[in-house]
Amino acid sequence: MKFNGILKLIAFIILSNPALVLAEKIHVAYTALAATQAPVWVAVDRGFFERQGLDVDLAYIRSGPIGLAAILSGEVAFGMVGGAAILSAIEQKAEIGVIAIPIKKPAFSLVTSVNIRTPQDLAGKKIGVTRFGGLYDFAFRYALRQWKIPSNQVQIIQVGGIGEILAAIHTGHIDAAVLADPASFKAIEYGFKEFLNFANLDIAFPMNAVIARQRLLREKPAMVNKFAAGFVAAISFMKAERVKTTAVIKKYTRIDESNLLDKTYDLVVKQYLQLDPSPDVKVLQSAFRMMGKSEDEIRSMNLSRFTDPQFVEGARKAGR
Fold first, then answer.
1. Beta strands in 104-167, from DSSP E residues, in sequence order
2. So what CATH class is 109-200?
3. Burial of 245 (0-12, 13-18, 19+ CB in 10 A)
4. pTM
5. Same CATH topology for 2-105+205-319 and 109-200?
6. Helix or strand or coil: residue 203?
7. Cα(240)–Cα(85) distance, integer angstroms
8. What pLDDT digit, counting tens, does each position of 44-79 carry?
9. Which CATH superfamily is domain 2-105+205-319 in?
């Protein structure tokens, strides 16, 4: 009798929580230890994906190009990938679909040693980036073009992850780096200064985006709808829950100074993060202009082929 009672209890729990029966295991990646990646962290840690019936295995892949390769191989279903890797994939006509762009401006800063006062002072200096072809490398080379400084006049060094860049700043091995919050604030704490805040420039840019293979979007739309619903719900939660959101950011970035976390929340979550993360072709067009592409080149890419807003739009309508 006791055994039958246990079985009935288990059945009741399962029937009361259909997600336990229908949970679908998927692999999701994020590609930077920056608060701009936080929507996917919050969606996992606060149970928003679980409520949609998704059992998410979340992994850190330390650069956009490597994360993109994992998505295209099918190893990862969805990834939060930086704009530079996405632009490169589109140029190569890779079969990716952008389903969300939660931050539509370049939310990073060029931080430098205090003795760099003008762009020309960067000549001969060591500039740390996570990976060649990655988001921060893209941003720094864009700045060089705006200042008309040839890239061969500086030393761009591939350092590794955000932690490695901060260590190189702390030990004096590099003179400048492009970083997102809260790492940029940590660099300033180490004695660097903010030389250029890219977010203040009047340009649209996919700071990061959620992407998947187009085949997955076609063949498993129900799963994509679940992911989009959890992602959108996480953003709404972040906007409303400061303390709980900063706790998640602290966990993943491993930066525990409350003043840095508060500044990060005020900028990234309150100002930069969009309640409507629908992918916008105009944002991609602007990013390709940053690369120096002509209007004819941009039109020839047929960028709408690489965006699929229906999932986020559906999630937002259902959540109203």
1. 109-112, 126-129, 155-158
2. alpha beta
3. buried
4. 0.84
5. yes
6. coil
7. 31
8. 999 999 999 999 999 999 878 888 999 999 999 999
9. Periplasmic binding protein-like II (3.40.190.10)
